[in-house]
Write a structure and sequence with these properties.
heterotrimer; A alpha/beta; B mainly alpha; C mainly alpha; A: alpha/beta; D-Maltodextrin-Binding Protein, domain 2; 2 domains; seven-stranded mixed beta sheet; five-stranded mixed beta sheet; 12 strands; C: mainly alpha; two-stranded antiparallel sheet; 22 helices
Chain lengths: 325, 163, 505
């Protein structure tokens, strides 16, 4: 126990020292000898996939690494496939994985024999935020009007979102708990499909990420009611948060990188250092601003602690969710 | 042909029963206010498949449309086909250990020598050229890494050169 | 004409020497990637996407359009030569393309595919140029109910495929549909049919794996057996005259091709539908309305032209919802969408207003890429046909190698290669016992779409089945589907009645 603890502590110390120094001495001790596999926990074309490919591009363009990073989609079973793959790659330093929230929800929901505590945390690149959206034609402008309309519909109010058990359905469950309302949840294949279904009137509301619905908002087709964040966003002026309206609702989607368990300190430091440079790159900062992503960088022990506390939080939310039939 | 027809129908019936049993893990009925459950599609489609393959089996006792035909018109072909299947399966089986490249070389060599009876020159050219072309097309150009197994260390200088 | 002047501006940027070079390179690369079984436009676009950040944005779009079209053309090559559809959009091309190749007319089939693709591509780009904006609104009207009705329609244009055994066809359709449910049930979020928790099944059974198995490995085994009895594999030759003959043949098919293009464009434009149902419907309809429907599936050149016009038209059509609504209709357009976001362009309703340079540059490069693709494709046909003249056992060994590599490449797991071996042997035996394989493969492609849209529609209608017929669009599709389903039956009945009456009179 004690040894693990000190080893982790040492990594965090060394990693942060390396970052602070700017010229990383330790990172030079190890570098990939072959192309690095970048496993994506989702299918092609989704938000996670797009982000992972953006990182690949920036790494290539800015020549941040000698070896290419090759994205591989393993989205099967809400990421169960990717998690099992990473577990089998124990000790392999040429594999990293781009995560999203299914990193904790999938092992809770299905027995796949994976404990995320065993993996090596690298860095959290961003957190994506959520908002409640309605079609402009509905005439709804405030959260009170929304709750009333849903109640009046008597359970037939259609909420569109990604697959059952994934983030959108959790946010919907949080909303239902807070306002004492119930929706008919319509699961769809991806955020883009969800946003269009709202514009086309096939669902009545969504909890899309701003990046997915932003262009329809600008075109005057959909309207954000409130954000599930602690503070307002610069990119969405005039949109209130649930917190300031007196409702304690916050939910984020993390976008991080992890590696298989059993990496050496030098190997972990190499990736942390690389991701730090990525975080500082101008392309990434511009992209994040445009897409309303928060770029809160986090590494080492703090990241692992964050993962574990998020896992507990999700365990609670999922417990409150009725298992869908 | 008749025996083969019956055997295949039986195998399909068994398969559909297996699918039905498996699909029952999720609700197979009509869930109120939301339509069919998660297991409904596989379950009922397997049930139709079971019915249709049972009818095929029954039919084979009533009429014999293919009587006199043989399932394998040329019995000599059987060992050769079994050989090709065996070689193909063996190639896949050794990929995780000796890597794609050695496995392909072995496959091509055995196939061309023992099934094709080709001369050494052609065999030599094909077994040596294929892996090179595959490496440059899949790995260098398309960036799709193929499994290397134990041969991984030999590729490290190549990676350093081409990436 | 505002459109024309905008288009002219677009051409001015896309016709510089650098950009013409890029088109040629892109189309050639796309052709070869598309011609490999298992690889398609997704791989091509993924390959060049990082490169597009190094060249100027307009050249980047042109490169992507060139690869996209090149790969669409290339898909037909492996369907015709090897009988293995390189992508689900090219399945229908195998039905008549492969028999033509076996009759020694591979060159003619390839020319037909290239010309048809060009016609489909051109007509759809013209439609795109004129109607892009209003059509986007139509696409929005498409909800789950309409999607289900459309997929059902695509399916019924296919039922009664040739004179196959009805019971065996039913078994194969059901088997395909059941295999399509393997993996995760998106609606309930639960895994199903994963056969003892094998992680390889979590992501389901991919179409490519089944197609490479039954058409690739299965075909090789079948040919090894039959070629022992009749060892003559017809060698294809290609002369200049064939090219002229080919184009003359194609000239008779304007009706099929223009219908296929329009159909392809509209079906491809619908979110979630895409090129596969479009090519199937086009083939099915060409057969239904043909004067000689019995020649389809036996090497009718019209059976190559119909799906090829439609799938190329559909791939242009699928760019429309991607650009105007920001929803990708296929994995490839999803990657393109990602690329655009990275260039700082926001696809969606505002794109046509705010980024006219980009939009018209893209549209004009679709014209140039399409033209370049047909020319390069025809120039390469002798090379493709020459490949067929390899000694038979060399060809077989190469196809098996391609099956292993092409099966591994898309998702990079050996699990899929094992499945290919299994499907290959099973497909070989089933084929010998007269089970039709096309319905099996098609059911696997259309199955997930059908189940998903059916259940989504019912959930949003609170389980009310009348939802499907209460909406005008979906009701129309369902009525059409019913007609197409009944059509072969009616024809058969009429023929029987005619037969019964004939001797009596």
């Amino acid at each position: 126990m004690l040894t693990t603890f000190t080893r982790r502590g040492a990594i965090a110390l060394v990693a942060s020292a390396a970052i602070a120094a700017g010229s990383p001495a330790l990172a030079e001790d190890w570098k990939p000898m072959k192309p690095v596999e970048m496993v994506i926990m989702a299918g092609q074309g989704g938000g996670a996939d797009r982000l992972a490919r953006l990182f690949q591009t920036i790494i290539q363009k800015e020549k941040l690494a000698q070896m290419p990073f090759l994205p591989v989609n393993k989205g099967g079973g809400s990421g169960a496939e990717a998690l099992r793959y990473l577990k089998d790659k124990q000790g392999d330093a040429h594999v990293i994985m781009a995560t999203l929230n299914s990193y904790y929800t999938t092992p809770i929901q299905t027995e796949i024999g994976v404990d995320i505590e065993e993996f090596t945390p690298l860095a959290r690149m961003a957190v994506d935020v959520f908002a409640l959206w309605v079609n402009v034609d509905s005439g709804i402008e405030t959260i009170e009007q929304y709750a009333e309309a849903v109640k009046a519909a008597g359970g037939s109010w259609r909420m569109g979102g990604t697959g059952t058990g994934q983030e959108d359905s959790l946010v919907t469950a949080l909303l239902e708990r807070e306002f004492g309302i119930s929706h008919t949840y319509v699961p769809m294949a991806g955020g883009g499909e969800v946003a269009t279904a709202l514009v086309g009137g096939h669902v009545d509301a969504t909890v899309n990420n701003p990046s997915e619905a932003m262009s329809f908002w600008q075109a005057g087709r959909v309207r954000p009611i409130a954000l599930l964040t602690a503070e307002r966003l610069d990119s969405m002026p005039g949109v209130p948060t649930f917190a300031e309206l007196g409702h304690d609702l916050e939910y984020y989607m993390q976008r991080s990188f992890v590696a298989p368990g059993g990496l050496t300190e030098a190997q972990q430091a190499y990736y942390v250092n690389l991701l730090q440079k990525l975080h500082e790159s101008e392309e990434w900062q511009t992209y994040a601003r445009d897409q309303a992503l928060l770029t809160d960088f986090l590494t080492g022990d703090e990241l692992q602690a964050y993962f574990l506390s998020e896992r507990e939080k999700h365990r609670d939310i999922l417990k409150g969710l009725d298992t869908p039939s | 042909m008749l025996a083969a027809d019956r055997l295949i129908a039986l195998a399909l019936m068994g398969l559909s029963l297996y699918f039905m049993w498996y699909a029952k893990a999720l609700p197979i009925g009509w869930v109120a206010a939301s339509g069919p459950g998660g297991g409904a599609f596989p379950f009922w489609l397997s049930a139709i498949m079971l019915a249709a393959s049972s009818l095929i089996l029954l039919r084979s006792f009533i009429s014999h449309p293919h009587e006199g035909e043989k399932f394998f018109p040329d019995a000599d072909a059987i060992p050769q086909i079994a050989g090709v299947i065996g070689l193909f399966v063996a190639t896949i089986a050794v990929i995780p250990f000796i890597g794609t490249y050695l496995a392909l070389i072995a496959f091509l060599f055995i196939y061309l020598k023992f099934f094709g009876h080709h001369g050494w020159v052609l065999i030599g050219i094909l077994t040596l050229a294929t892996p090179v072309v595959v490496f440059f097309f899949f790995e260098v150009t398309l960036k799709i890494l193929l499994p290397k197994g134990w041969t991984e260390p030999f590729f490290i200088p190549l990676y350093a050169m081409f990436f | 004409m505002e459109v024309l002047s905008l288009l002219a501006d677009g051409f001015a940027t896309s016709l510089t020497p650098l950009n013409i070079m890029i088109v040629i390179l892109g189309v050639t690369a796309g052709l070869f990637i598309g011609a490999m079984p298992g690889l398609g436009s997704v791989n091509g676009v993924a390959l060049v996407l990082p490169l597009t950040f190094i060249v100027p944005p307009t050249s980047a779009i042109i490169l992507l359009a060139a690869i996209y079209y090149g790969a669409m053309y290339g898909g037909a090559v492996s369907s015709i030569l090897l009988g293995i559809p390189g992508a689900s959009t090219a399945v229908a091309t195998t039905f008549d393309g492969r028999p033509m190749a076996l009759q020694g007319k591979a060159g003619l089939a390839l020319i037909a595919a290239a010309v048809a693709s060009f016609v489909g591509g051109t007509i759809s780009v013209i439609l795109f140029t004129i109607f892009a904006a209003p059509l986007a609104e139509l696409a929005l009207k498409f909800g789950p109910a309409e999607e289900f009705a459309l997929v059902l329609l695509a399916f019924t244009t296919f039922v009664g495929l040739g004179g196959d055994d009805t019971l065996k066809t039913i078994v194969m359709i059901c088997l395909g549909l059941v295999l399509s449910t393997v993996g995760l049930d998106m609606i309930s979020g639960q895994p199903r049919l994963i056969f003892g928790d094998i992680p390889g099944f979590y992501s389901g059974i991919s179409f490519l794996v089944l197609a490479i198995g039954v058409y690739g490995v299965g075909e090789v085994l079948y040919t090894i057996e039959t070629s022992r009895i009749s060892p003559a594999v017809s060698t294809a030759r290609l002369r200049m005259r064939d090219l002229i003959d080919g184009i003359r043949e194609m000239n008779k098919m304007w009706k099929t091709m223009s219908f296929g293009s329009v159909l392809g464009f509209f079906v491809g434009m619908l979110p979630a539908a895409g090129a596969t149902p479009a090519s199937l419907m086009s083939y099915g309809l060409a057969r239904t309305f043909s004067k000689k429907p019995e020649t389809f599936g036996k090497g009718n050149i019209e059976g190559v032209a119909a799906p090829e016009t439609a799938n190329n038209a559909a791939s242009t059509g699928s760019l429309l919802p991607m650009l105007t609504l920001g929803i990708p209709g296929s994995p490839t357009t999803a990657l393109l969408l990602g690329g655009m976001v990275m260039w700082g362009l926001m696809p969606g309703p505002m794109l046509f207003i705010e980024q006219q340079d980009f939009v018209w540059g893209l549209i004009s490069s679709l014209y140039t890429a399409n033209l370049a693709a047909v020319l390069i494709n025809i120039a390469l046909i002798p090379l493709f046909v020459w490949a067929l003249r390899m000694p038979f056992s060399v060809l077989c060994s190469m196809v098996l190698v391609l099956c292993i590599l092409g099966g591994f490449a898309p998702s990079q797991k050996l699990h899929d290669v094992w499945l290919i071996a299994g499907f290959g042997v099973a497909g070989y035996l089933l084929r010998k016992a007269d089970y039709p394989l096309a319905p099996l493969v098609l059911a696997l492609v259309l199955g997930p779409l059908m189940e998903k849209s059916f259940r989504q529609a019912l959930i949003s209608a609170q389980g009310d089945v009348t939802f499907f017929i209460s909406r005008p669009l979906s009701a129309t599709f369902l009525a059409l589907a019913a007609i197409f389903f009944a059509l072969p039956l009616i024809k058969m009945l009429r023929r029987r009645i005619a037969k019964r009456h004939a001797p009596a009179e």
